[in-house]
Design brief:
about 250 residues; alpha+beta; 3 domains; four-stranded antiparallel β-sheet; about 35% helix; globular; binds zinc ion
């Protein structure tokens, strides 16, 4: 049987103790694989993805302990954490007052009472996607079971930036989508459509301006950036305030 070495710690691994990565590297299941989240897709990850994810957890766990844990007990209404319900394999918490979003995984020890918590912490402002997906599988009796997933997509993030997380039900997704849409001011209801229409008009005007400028060759980089931002704001909501809050909170963890 072929023996390999863990590309991170160097330990010798075999069929039962190795995890193969997408780029052909192997890591050990005993130590290094356990440093990653269970929902982290190792099969499609390269060694660089794995090490970036492990660094993300090391940093995220410090931020979790320093910022989120104290906020769990806050009496101040504005600072209360908001749990995202229905996620399987992880727990999700938004801290609206600091602009941060944490995914955590609790590890329970069997013989020693207590748990350890690993965390990935993101800027709420970097959350650019929360897409629904469903999958139908068969149970042991051959009956169809529908499974529900949400794929989160984070920009500016090294490590686990597109976790696909199973949800308990379709209703869990609907609640999650509604929460984030409202948080970013992405309104889909008729009541808010005026506000939305104005923002879209601003984006279209700015875009039209850029197209015209490109034709006469006068488009500069600043104008291109402003256009991209206006388009973003119309689709994804204005995130200036979310960026400010998060960067303030994270300043101590640079
Ligand atoms: Zn290892």
């Amino acid at each position: 049987m072929a023996k390999h070495n863990c590309a991170i710690c160097g330990a010798e691994v075999g069929l039962l103790t190795e995890q193969k990565l997408a780029d052909g590297n192997f890591i050990c299941r005993k130590v290094c694989s356990k440093k990653t989240f269970k929902v982290f897709d190792k099969v499609h990850a390269t060694l660089g993805d794995v090490t970036a994810h492990i660094e993300q957890i090391e940093k995220g766990t410090k931020i979790w302990e320093g910022i989120f844990v104290p906020l769990m007990k806050t009496k101040n209404k504005e600072e209360k954490l908001r749990q995202i319900y229905g996620l399987k394999g992880v727990l999700g918490y938004v801290s609206p007052s600091t602009g941060l979003f944490a995914l955590i995984e609790n590890r329970y020890k069997i013989f020693i009472f207590g748990k350890t918590t690993l965390a990935c912490v993101y800027r709420v402002a970097d959350l650019y996607g929360y897409e629904y997906e469903s999958e139908t599988t068969k149970d042991s009796e051959g009956k169809d079971i529908q499974k529900h997933y949400c794929t989160f997509l984070f920009r500016n993030t090294s490590g686990m930036y597109a976790p696909r997380i199973e949800l308990g039900s379709m209703a869990d997704y609907t609640a999650l989508e509604k929460y984030f849409n409202e948080l970013f001011g992405i309104q889909k209801t008729l009541r808010n459509s005026l506000n939305n229409a104005k923002r879209q008009m601003d984006a279209i005007k700015s875009f039209a301006g850029a197209v015209k400028a490109a034709k006469d060759g006068s488009l500069d980089e600043a104008q291109a950036a402003a256009t991209a931002e206006a388009m973003d704001a119309s689709v994804y909501g204005d995130r200036t305030e979310w960026i400010r809050k998060a960067d303030e909170a994270l300043a101590a963890y640079k």
